[in-house]
Amino acid sequence: MEEGNTIAKRAGSRLCCLCNERKPALKRPKTLEQICRDCFYNVFEEEIHQVIVGNHLFKAGERVAIGASGGKDSTVLAYVMSELNRRHNYGLDLFLLSVDEGITGYRDDSLETVKRNEVQYGLPLKIVSYKDLYGWTMDEIVKVIGLKNNCTFCGVFRRQALDRGAAYLKVDKLVTGHNADDIAETVLLNILRGDVARLSRCTSITTGEDGPIPRCKPFKYTYENFNQNHTYAYFKKLDYFSTECIYSPNAYRGFAREFIKDLERMRPRAIVDIIKSGENFRISTSTKMPEQGTCERCGYISSQKWCKACVLLEGLNRGLPKLGIGRSRFLENSNDNRKEAKRNDGDRSIESKQCGSLDF
Amino acid sequence: MHLTLEFGGGLELLCDSVKIHNVDVELKKGLEKLTMKDLLAWVRTNLIKERPEMFMKGDTVRPGVLVLVNDCDWELSGQLETTLQEKDVVVFISTLHGG
Question: Segment Disordered: which positions (chain A) (predicted)?
Fold first, then answer.
């Protein structure tokens, strides 16, 4: 009791503002009230429920794949989704979908976490790998192109990998653990790169409704400010993996992230305001926007003749890894012999196949 | 003062991959209490073996590091001004990586 009193004293001699029974553990975002752990769980889960219902994210009977990397956001997502699905009878068939990029020392460890999640949450797991889909692991790609543009490859390949995994599972929707911070970073990145087309789309809570599989982000309004996902995962002792991708220190996104974190410190509303700005951008009518079509090689959604993944893959396979990155230059084909050796090494030679054999 | 310090979310890599540290922190001469500010400086000097900029920025933790004192967010107890007591448990979790 003495211990409890001392802590209560240090915490401002108050009890939880919501239940008035337990000692507060943190400040509630937005209202700054001091609340205890149990009330935090309720508030957090209810907020997500309201976002799901208010934005009509799902319909009863839908099959939904949860993009699971083993990290804190996707673990919290898997936990909360299965909890809310049960509690509020969403009637959804939930699955875990994981992407194996082939990064030793990072992905192999986090996949172990997802396999544990499969058991812990009782959700069937499907893993898709770059090696199977494209014939290349990220480690192999980095060996060829170095550390500067590797995230470009990974991002493009991962998007497609998720769609292919989702098609395999025959799901109606894909759900990911992107939160407000992530979306704010994306808005900033698109501004920095002048990517007008993406800028107009990236703040929607559901994207890709005109593509193969729509994907939504129930955590869109969850600010990492006050570190909600982390706090939730920590208190609930959820099993998650928490190391940075070994290649990520070179990612451009890191700069946006650092910048936003600093802004947030001075003005906590910075994140939600960036998203609001992003939602309200209007593209000038005189701007030429890319038209949407399909890739000639694999049928995936694309605004060019070939989708970005096919272009990048072609570059890798032909020993021209800069194809599709910035201005294309012709590099010496000293790598060609190595590529030939790859093709003949016996395992599924996806390189000779088109980018994917699933119909879109 | 005996304290238990826990590092998570990747921060343990800065302290020789050890997650839990049972430490004995000396109070500064003439001072009776230990604040979080003092503790942070102590940790930076004594526990962080590499890349201190991942843990601290200036006097306080880098933005994105969650700090819990006895399972309570340090925002509740005054952040840097929080006074620590014998046998307190302080947890540092980094949040700045993909999830």
Answer: 336-360
Sheet holding B20-24: strands in order across? B20-24, B2-8, B89-94, B65-69, B72-73
- Predicted confidence band at A9 (pLDDT cuts at 50, 70, 90)? very low
Q: Does A71 touch chain B (CB under 8 A)?
A: yes
Q: Torsions phi, psi of B63, nearest 5? A: -55, 135
* A264 close to B (CB below 8 A): yes
Chain A residue with minimum CA distance to B57: A262
Touching check for B79 and chain A: CB below 8 Å? no
Q: Cα A108 to chain center, whole Å?
A: 18
Instruction: Determine the number of helices (DSSP H) and then strands (DSSP E) in chain B.
Output: 2, 9
pTM: 0.81
Please write down the long-range contacts of A339-345, taking CB distance under 8 Å and 24 or more positions apart: A342/A135
User: Does position A154 have pLDDT exceeding 60, yes or no?
Assistant: yes
Which of A71, A261, A262 is nearest residue B99 as measured by Cβ atoms? Answer: A71
Q: Do A231 and B66 touch (CB under 8 A)?
A: yes
Tell whether A278 is within 8 A of chain B (Cβ): no
Looking at the predicted complex, does its ipTM rise above 0.90? no
How many CA atoms lie within 13 Å of A173's alpha carbon, on the beta-carbon side? 21
Helix, strand, coil % over all residues of chain B, rounded to 5 = 25, 35, 40
Strands lying side by side in the sheet with A206-207: A125-129, A93-100, A63-67, A173-175, A215-216, A206-207
Is the separation of the CB atoms in A28 and A43 below 8 Å? yes
Cα of A247 to nearest chain B Cα, Å: 12
Q: Does A131 touch chain B (CB under 8 A)?
A: no
- Element holding A265 (H helix, E strand): helix A253-266
| CA dihedral angle for residue A113, residue A115, residue A121, residue A126, rounded to 10 degrees | 130
CB contact under 8 A, A26 and B77: no
Distance between CA atoms of residues B28 and B34, nearest Å: 8
Per-residue pLDDT, B97: 61
Kindly report, residue by residue over B48-99, the tens digit of the pLDDT.
888 888 888 888 888 778 899 998 889 888 889 999 989 999 999 887 665 5
Q: Is A217 an 8 Å CB contact of chain B?
A: no
Q: What angle do CA A147, A148, A150 make, to 5 degrees?
A: 70
**A278-to-A209, A210, A251, A275, A334 alpha-carbon distances in Å:** 19, 20, 22, 5, 45
Residues of chain B in contact with residue A224, where contact means CB-CB under 8 angstroms, are: 64, 95
Binary contact (A235, B71; C-beta < 8 A):
yes
